[in-house]
Design a protein that fits this description.
This protein is of the alpha/beta class. The chain has ten helices and six strands. It has one domain: Isochorismatase-like (Rossmann fold, 3-Layer(aba) Sandwich), CATH 3.40.50.
């Protein structure tokens, strides 16, 4: 399958309509790495770690077309022999989550307070989604709970590869992708977010949730929040810049 086929979405990713007109006007600074965030069986794949949120997330992921976009990026990076790091989340490693927040309540609902790596359910949930075409040269690190740099060793892996710029893709855009970009900036990395390789997905258990909420959050993120810390563009543009 060609990059053109993989980057073509059957449905429109809502984040794309909020890109700035000049979003393709930039240059790649230094060596890039692709960081694919939480594209694992337990979250973006089969949703075992998010039982109440999962059906809503699964529909949004499918409608947005983000999975083939992530794969297109991975294939492009592999062809260029550039680093790919999958960052997968361990949902409840110390068997205690913060008391407040819809996302943490969802983790509690999943009852994932089991030993990680030795429990079959957790081990399956930590696997990279088969759709990503993982190969032995791809790096895999594990974070807990949300931000990709937290307790994962991601910074050490990036420095090993002498990376300057992070291309951030994965699930979900307003939480994991955005928080990773914030911390990456504090660590002096450049960040690029191809918004069609991600998806704004508010937990469906959020009080007062309604069907337009993902769109509202996407607009705030793409127009303002992400723009303050990253270059915000699309998958085809990132591939063209490699």
């Amino acid at each position: 399958m060609s990059d053109a086929d993989r980057t073509r979405s059957t449905k429109f990713n809502i984040s794309m309509k909020y890109l700035r007109p000049d979003h393709k006007d930039w240059k790649m600074e230094g060596k890039p790495a692709l960081c694919v965030l939480h594209m694992q069986r337990g979250l973006a794949g089969e949703g075992m770690f998010i039982p109440n949120w999962g059906p809503h997330a699964a529909k949004g992921i499918a409608d947005s077309g983000m999975v083939p976009k992530c794969r297109a990026l991975a294939d492009a990076f592999r062809r260029k022999n550039l680093p790919i790091i999958f960052v997968n989340a361990i949902p409840n490693p110390v068997r205690k989550v913060p008391a407040y927040g819809d996302l943490f309540r969802e983790i509690e609902a999943a009852q994932v307070n089991r030993p990680y790596f030795t429990d079959d359910f957790i081990r399956r949930g930590l696997e990279v989604m088969p759709e990503m075409g993982q190969v032995p040269s791809d790096e895999v690190v594990y974070n807990w709970l949300i931000g990709s740099f937290t307790n994962s060793g991601l910074d050490a892996v990036l420095r090993k590869h002498q990376v300057s710029t992070l291309i951030l893709a994965g699930f979900a855009q307003q939480s994991v992708v955005y928080s990773t970009a914030v911390v990456a900036g504090d660590l002096w990395y450049n960040c690029v977010i191809p918004v069609d390789a991600s998806y704004c997905c508010v937990p469906a258990i959020t009080p007062g949730y309604h069907e337009k909420l993902d769109d509202i959050v996407s607009e705030a993120l793409v127009r303002v929040m992400a723009q303050s810390i990253a270059q915000v563009t699309d998958t085809a543009d990132v591939i063209a810049h490699l």
